[in-house]
Specification:
The protein has about 140 residues and is mainly alpha-helical. It is built from 7 helices and no strands. The relative contact order is 0.21.
Length: about 140
C-alpha cells in the first residue's frame, strides 16, 4: 500500500506539472526545473496520463490504513482527472475530426487546464504532507 501511496503522490505531481506547464512557466518559471520538451511531449503525456488514471482508480479501490473509508478520495479523483486531461491532450493532437462533444470537453478541460493542474499540485503536496487524513 505504501507503493501505491508513493506512486499516487509522484504521478499526481508530474501530471499536474504537465497539465499546468504553461501557467506554471509563466507565473513561476518552472521551465528552469522541468524541461519543456519532456512535459509537453504528446507521448510522454499519454503514458503519464494512463499511469495517473490507473493509479487514481486503484486508490479508490484499495484502502490505505485500517480505516475503511475513502480517505484518499480527493487525490484519487485528482489523479483520474489529470490523467484524463493528459490523454485528451494526446487525442486532440492526433484527431482529424472534432465533434461537438469533443469541443465541449476541450472547452471544459483544456481551456481550464492551468486551474486543474494547480489544484492537482496542491492536493498532491497536501497528500504528501498529511497521508493519514481521513477525508482528504
Amino acid at each position: 500500500m505504501y507503493l501505491l501511496y508513493a506512486l499516487s503522490v509522484i504521478l499526481n505531481i508530474f501530471a499536474a506539472v504537465s497539465v499546468a506547464y504553461s501557467l506554471l512557466d509563466e507565473k513561476i518559471g518552472i521551465g528552469r526545473f522541468f524541461a519543456p520538451e519532456g512535459f509537453t511531449d504528446p507521448r510522454f503525456r499519454l503514458v503519464l496520463g494512463l499511469f495517473a488514471f490507473v493509479v487514481g482508480f486503484l486508490k479508490l479501490i484499495f484502502v490505505f490504513g485500517s480505516v475503511a473509508v475513502l480517505g484518499d478520495f480527493l487525490p484519487a479523483i485528482s489523479g483520474m482527472v489529470l490523467g484524463f486531461i493528459l490523454i485528451l491532450y494526446f487525442y486532440l493532437d492526433r484527431a482529424s475530426l472534432k465533434t461537438e462533444g469533443l469541443g465541449k470537453m476541450e472547452e471544459i478541460f483544456i481551456n481550464n487546464a492551468g486551474i486543474f493542474g494547480a489544484v492537482g499540485l496542491l492536493l498532491a503536496f497536501v497528500h504528501l504532507l498529511f497521508p493519514a487524513i481521513l477525508f482528504l
